[in-house]
Amino acid sequence: MQRMGDLVLTFPLLAWLRAEHPRRPLWVVGEEKFFKGLMPIGPEAVFFPYDAANRLRQNRYHQVINLSHRPEAAALAGQLHADAHFGPRLADVGTGKDAGRTTYVHGRWQLYRTSLVHNNRHNLFHWADLNALDCVPARRIRGTDWPAPQHHGRDPQRVGLFLGASEPEKRPSAPFWAALARDLLRRGLKPVLLGGPAEAALGADVARRANTPALNLCGRFTLPELVAFTRSLRLLVTPDTGPMHVAAWTQTPTLNLSMGPVNARETAPFPPGHHVLRATISCVGCWRCTQPSVLCRDRFDPARVSSLVQALLREQDAVPAQSANGTNGAIAASRVARLRLPGLELLRTGRDTLGLFDLVPVGDNGNGQQAMPRRLFGQFWKAFWAWRLGLHGEAAARRAWADLATASPRLAEALRRALSGLGRDLAQALRGLGTGQATLPSDFWHRHPPMLRPLTGYLHMSVQNADATPAAWAEALTMVEAPATLTT
């Protein structure tokens, strides 16, 4: 019950559930305007619009998984009987005059995901993985081989430019798109302007500026027709948007221009082998932009993106030769890695040792080790949560801490001090536990420095979600002590 991209990012979960429970029917409640066009490309499932909820309430389920933040989704989840629930669920609480309803989040990974709202700076887990980690065995995720992008049989010169995004800050401007289209034409390529009805005016503006009206196909396709057309593209250049996920899922190579209030670690193309280009400034990946202008978007230059597009296409051309002798493909890949992109970094989608989504830097693009401390910091928190929430043992978390401490001793020492302060703050909140008055202040999660917020955000949510019971406080104390054991 979200946007198109959110629906496509449930497809990995649906595929894993289908593999884990081949004899169980799989039902999905979603937005009909999206799922009708996407059913032919998604895993086998039965889709229902929300107005079919009365029919759904008549059954009992093995699992109910709510991936929506909408209140009516939580209400529906609360009305369905199941052996297990995951995600937000509206429940009755209290009796008599104290009776009421409140929303609880079921599943520790779903709780972690909820704690990322306005608090995702150091998160390295992709939404598609977070959808599944509570209810799909780790062995299933680790053992999945996702199809790689395919360029064979496509128009060798056709490059799609998807112009729109859910918010203007998440996409390039009309002058940028026009300049990029002209430069691609100059290189002998065939850029095509794509978009839905909402991008019709933008497409006309870009076509006028680029003097290429014949290449504007914005608003021309239904969703199934757009899906079919993207299969003819050698590459789709796109901001973070639903059609980007559709293209990647159907093995169309994509270059994601990641800008504005998006975190590519969470919402980049999920299958391996696609590319992400983003700025290297410290605020990149924010939940909501607070700058006077969208600084990360200003780093993108049409000429450099055009050079990158051409380099990626040459890399594609070398793949058959690479499979034969391993030489030409390696040369093409090294050209992409050596391409200088000042103020930007190029990454390739891949998988880590757990089979979870990863973004792998492609060369240094002229930026050296600029982003290394933050990357190592994110990897530490990723390893910490994978340890605490059961994906691997403590040893991997210790290695991540050692990597961080070696690369940046000053940052490691700052984290030690911050953890000590968090312990004192939590101890103060616990003073009223014996009298039932133990509470966390409303600003608890963000009163601590950003380096601690992956932990404080989760602590705040988990204590509230468990109604501040003694067991919830005990888990909070354990969570605070855990990183301290790694950093000593």
UniProtKB/TrEMBL annotation:
Q: Which InterPro entries match?
A: Glyco_trans_9, LPS_LOS_Heptosyltrfase
Q: Which domain of life is it from?
A: Bacteria
Task: Tell me yes or no: is Hydrolase among this UniProt entry's keywords.
Answer: no
Q: Which UniProt keywords apply?
A: Glycosyltransferase, Transferase
Question: Is Phosphoprotein tagged as a keyword?
Answer: no
Name of the molecule in the record: Glycosyltransferase family 9 protein
